[in-house]
C-alpha cells in the first residue's frame, strides 16, 4: 500500500551561529492530516545546519511511517536548491548533512522539493522556535497536544521531571563474549555460547545491574543462548527471578555474512557492504535490514513499557537491537549505529516516563569489567 506524505521542515539559529533548533511536520498528502511532528534543539549551530537537521528529521519520520512518496516543502532556498541538485554544496560542514538526507531519500520511491514562503511554513517554524527556546534556556512555548508532538522527540525543558518514581527504568545489557566476539566476526542468528571470559563478564554485569537497582521486576532476554546465560546470571543476582524470553530482542540476521569478518565481507561483497553501510533499509544477502530490526525492537519496547510501568526491567540483547533502542532514545541519526561501540557485557541505562519523555543515563558502562 502506498502512502504519499508532505514534509514541511524548518530550522533556525538566534545569532547564526547561536542557540539553534529545528522542526518538521509530516502530513498525509491527500487528507492533510498531521501524521508526525519532530523538533529538537541543537545547542549552538548555524541557520543552515538547523534547516538541514529539520529536513533530516522530517524524512526520518516519513520513513518510520513507511511512506513511499514524499513532497518536501521548505522556506530555505539553499536546502531546496542543493537537495534538488541545482546548487553546489560549497560549505564542507553541510556536506555530511546533505549526504545523510540523501541516504534517507533513497528509502522512498519518489521525493520532490518545493520552496514555499515562510508564512506557508508556520507549523514547522513554530516547532523550530520551541527548540530554539530550549537551546537558549528559555521557558518553552505552549506545547502542542502530546499526540502531535511526542515528548520523546521534543523534551519540554531542561528541568528534571517532577517525579522520578513514574519512570520505567530500562537497563540494557549486551551478552558476554563468545568465540566470535574475540575474532571480530559477524554474530547474528548463530547460537554460539559464552566463553569462560564471557561468563565472567556476565557475572560482572550482574553485579553492576544490582548496583543500579535492587528492585528489578523482570529480566527479559533474546532467545539465543549467549543472552539467556547472561540473563540467568543477572536474574540470580536479582534474587532468583525467572528469565523471560522475548523473541524480538534477537540479533539482526546477517545472512551470508554470518561468522565472517568485516574484511572477508568487504572483499567478497564490496558493493553490498557499501549499500548496507549507506542505508538502514538494505539487508545483507539473505539477511535482515536494520530498518526491520528497528521495527520489531520498537514493538518489544512498547510491550515492556506497557507490562512494567514504573518498574525496573533488564533487557539482555545484542549489539544491533541495543544500538537501535539507544538511537531512538537519543533521537540520533542512522550514522549513530556505525559510530557507537558496545562492549561485551556493557551496560546502558535509560528512564522512560508515561508521557513519552526519555532520559538516557548511561551508555556502554564497562567499569565493572576491569
From TrEMBL:
InterPro entries reported in the protein's UniProt record: His_Pase_superF_clade-1, His_PPase_superfam, PGM_Phosphatase, RNaseH-like_sf, RNaseH/PGlycerate_mutase, RNaseH_domain, RNaseH_sf
Q: Where is the composition biased (Low complexity)?
A: 142-160
What Pfam families has UniProt attached to this entry? His_Phos_1 (PF00300), RVT_3 (PF13456)
Annotated CDD domains = HP_PGM_like (cd07067), RNase_HI_like (cd09279)
Q: Provide the RNase H type-1 domain boundaries.
A: 1-141
Please give the residue ranges the record annotates as the region Disordered: 133-160
Domain of life, per the record?
Answer: Bacteria
Family matches, as PROSITE patterns: RNASE_H_1
Known PANTHER family for this protein?
Answer: BROAD-SPECIFICITY PHOSPHATASE YOR283W-RELATED, HISTIDINE PHOSPHATASE FAMILY PROTEIN-RELATED
Please state what the protein is called.
Answer: Bifunctional RNase H/acid phosphatase
Amino acid at each position: 500500500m502506498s502512502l504519499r506524505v508532505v514534509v514541511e521542515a524548518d530550522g533556525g539559529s538566534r545569532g547564526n551561529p547561536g542557540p539553534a533548533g529545528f522542526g518538521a511536520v509530516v502530513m498525509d498528502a491527500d487528507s492533510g492530516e498531521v501524521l508526525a511532528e519532530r523538533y529538537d534543539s541543537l545547542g549552538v549551530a548555524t541557520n543552515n545546519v538547523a534547516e538541514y537537521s529539520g529536513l533530516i528529521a522530517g524524512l526520518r519520520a516519513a520513513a518510520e511511517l513507511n511512506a513511499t512518496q514524499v513532497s518536501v516543502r521548505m522556506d530555505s532556498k539553499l536546502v531546496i536548491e542543493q537537495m534538488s541538485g541545482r546548487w553546489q554544496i560549497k560549505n564542507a560542514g553541510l556536506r555530511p548533512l546533505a549526504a545523510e538526507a540523501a541516504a534517507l531519500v533513497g528509502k522512498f520511491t519518489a521525493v520532490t522539493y518545493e520552496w514555499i514562503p515562510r508564512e506557508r511554513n508556520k507549523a514547522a517554524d513554530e516547532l523550530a522556535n520551541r527548540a530554539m527556546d530550549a537551546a537558549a534556556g528559555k521557558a518553552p512555548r505552549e506545547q502542542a497536544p502530546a499526540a502531535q508532538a511526542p515528548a520523546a522527540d521534543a523534551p519540554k525543558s531542561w528541568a528534571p521531571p517532577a517525579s522520578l518514581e513514574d519512570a520505567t527504568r530500562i537497563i540494557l545489557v549486551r551478552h558476554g563474549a563468545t568465540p566470535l566476539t574475540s575474532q571480530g566476526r559477524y554474530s547474528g542468528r548463530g547460537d554460539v555460547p559464552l566463553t569462560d571470559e564471557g561468563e565472567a563478564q556476565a557475572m560482572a554485569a550482574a553485579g553492576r545491574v544490582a548496583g543500579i537497582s535492587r528492585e528489578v521486576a523482570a529480566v527479559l532476554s533474546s532467545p539465543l543462548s549467549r543472552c539467556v546465560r547472561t540473563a540467568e546470571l543477572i536474574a540470580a543476582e536479582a534474587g532468583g527471578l525467572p528469565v523471560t524470553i522475548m523473541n524480538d530482542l534477537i540479533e539482526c540476521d546477517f545472512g551470508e555474512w554470518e561468522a565472517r569478518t568485516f574484511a572477508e565481507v568487504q572483499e567478497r561483497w564490496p558493493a553490498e557492504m557499501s549499500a548496507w553501510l549507506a542505508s538502514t533499509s538494505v539487508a545483507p544477502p539473505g539477511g535482515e535490514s536494520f530498518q526491520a530490526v528497528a521495527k520489531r525492537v520498537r514493538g518489544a519496547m512498547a510491550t515492556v513499557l506497557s507490562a512494567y510501568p514504573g518498574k525496573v526491567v533488564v533487557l539482555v540483547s545484542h549489539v544491533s537491537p541495543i544500538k537501535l533502542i539507544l538511537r531512538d532514545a537519543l533521537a540520533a541519526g542512522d550514522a549513530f549505529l556505525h559510530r557507537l561501540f558496545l562492549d561485551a557485557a556493557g551496560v546502558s541505562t535509560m528512564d522512560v516516563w508515561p508521557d513519552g519523555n526519555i532520559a538516557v543515563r548511561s551508555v556502554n558502562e564497562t567499569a565493572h569489567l576491569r
